Amino acid sequence: MKRDRRLRGLSSEHHHALVLARAIERQIDAWSTSDGARLREQFDRQLEPHFLAEEQVLLPALRAAGRLDLCERVERDHARLRRAAASASAGDASAARAFGAELAEHVRFEERDLFPVCESLLADEILDEVARRGPKADSSCS
Length: 142
What we know:
This protein is mostly helical and 142 residues long. 80% of the residues lie in helices and 0% in strands. It has 5 helices and no strands. The longest helix is centred in the middle third of the chain and has 32 residues, at 33-64. It starts with 7 loop residues before the first helix and ends in a 9-residue tail after the last helix.
């Protein structure tokens, strides 16, 4: 999928998020507190900055453009993912399973719905700010 260069950093992180979701699924039967600690570190280092770039730059612009539906969905997803990550980091395997499934679904939503609207609706200044604040397209999330 062709993505605006200014959203490529966030989009490239989605690949790494899907890798994380698959890794959680593969190890869920033996989920432990050490797995939870690794998830917490990865969440804090990679996902939280991604969420903040969206919440602080994209969502205010989408809200101003009248796309409250997208804003509400992103905010709901981010809140659920934060709660599930906190529980999974304490060793809760069912929360880890939910986190992995919700993360994969959230990535699909952003790639299929959110980012195309951002590309078509948002001003260049907003997309430039996303590129400035967000990860670079070649950043590694593993």
